[in-house]
Design brief:
- By secondary structure, the chain is α/β, with parallel strands linked by helices.
- It contains 13 helices and 8 strands.
- Helix 2 runs parallel beside helix 6, helix 3 packs parallel to helix 5 and helix 6 packs parallel to helix 8.
- The longest helix has 17 residues.
- The radius of gyration is 23 Å and the shape is globular.
């Protein structure tokens, strides 16, 4: 489809065409601030748009526009429209790639749509936009991350299981961190939950600047060899679920502790504690509270590593 100027446009809802009509020109071309206004308004329109089924034939067409159009406005609008596609792996992959688009409007639109699709596996890629030179892109990424971390409580732990070998964190390599299996002082906690918690910790820790995650089961000789060759500082994390409380008001509170020690020597350096309370008493509430408690404890880790 093309408009009267011969520029291709995605087959978007009727409100998207209205967006094109809102044109303030400067010598026949829209100024940069107007372009941003279009994208931001499109975000608002998308919040009220209906969900498109994953098998909708528009899906492939929008992906083609997002990946191949030479017009940034077309790519941005395609990214916005893809945010209404529910459960489409192809759409998620295309939007993830668009986070590296040359134009900030496209990057911001892709971040927004990834937040709407609801796949928490996108969080790691979205965090990389925290250093984007454009403030609207950083804001869109932060909003998407916040939405993904809260809308599906169990999804972050589930996505962590898909990343058993995290890549090194951003920046130069500084720290070599071993994450021990998570323990529990609560008898009812299942082994699978402890395994998921360990994977969740790895996912969070590997996002810290300069962190390299040590492989599971590494012996002390191998660790010493890596530290000597790479000139890294070694640390070990021992985590534990301290308590799970069902409150009288129907909420669930989880407390955790994370001990920071040298690695492989295991001399204790710091104890970090975290707790979170979530309304509800089901499994989803428990997982969300556990995630919040672990996040609370791990926020203190960058400072502990630098000491």
């Amino acid at each position: 489809m093309s408009d009267r100027r011969g520029v291709e446009t995605p087959n978007a809802p009727r409100s998207m065409s209205a967006l094109e009509a809102m044109r303030v020109t400067r010598g026949g071309r829209a100024g940069p601030w107007v372009q941003w206004c279009r994208v931001l308004l499109a975000f608002a329109l998308c919040l009220h748009a209906g969900t498109v089924r994953a098998e909708d034939p528009r899906n492939a067409y929008l992906i083609k526009l997002l990946q191949g159009s030479s017009q940034f406005r077309v790519r941005a609008q395609a990214a916005i429209s893809l945010g209404a596609v529910e459960g489409s792996a192809n759409a998620t992959d295309a939007l993830t790639a668009a986070l590296s688009d040359a134009h900030p409007a496209v990057r911001a639109a892709a971040a927004n749509s990834l937040g709407r699709i609801g796949n928490s596996a996108s969080i790691a890629m979205l965090r990389k936009l925290s250093r984007d030179p454009e403030e609207p892109v950083r804001s869109a990424a932060q909003a998407a991350i916040a939405r993904l971390e809260t809308q599906a409580p169990s999804s972050v732990l589930a996505s962590a299981r898909l990343q058993p070998t995290p890549e090194p964190g951003p920046g130069p390599r500084l720290y070599y961190v071993s994450v021990a299996p998570t323990a529990s002082r609560v008898r009812e906690i299942e082994g699978k939950t402890l395994s998921d918690a360990r994977a969740f910790i790895k996912q969070r820790v590997q996002q810290i600047r300069g962190v390299v995650i040590a492989p599971d089961g590494e012996d002390s000789r191998a660790a010493d060899r890596v530290l000597k060759q790479s000139k890294l500082k070694g640390f070990a994390l021992d985590s534990a679920i301290v308590s799970v409380e069902k409150k009288g008001n129907g909420s669930t509170r989880v407390s955790v502790s994370v001990i920071v020690a040298t690695y492989p020597g295991r001399d204790m350096r710091a104890i970090m504690q975290g707790a979170a309370t979530v309304t509800g008493s089901g499994s989803d509430a428990y997982v969300q509270a556990l995630e919040g408690a672990l996040n609370g404890a791990l926020r203190q880790l960058p400072q502990a590593l630098e000491r």
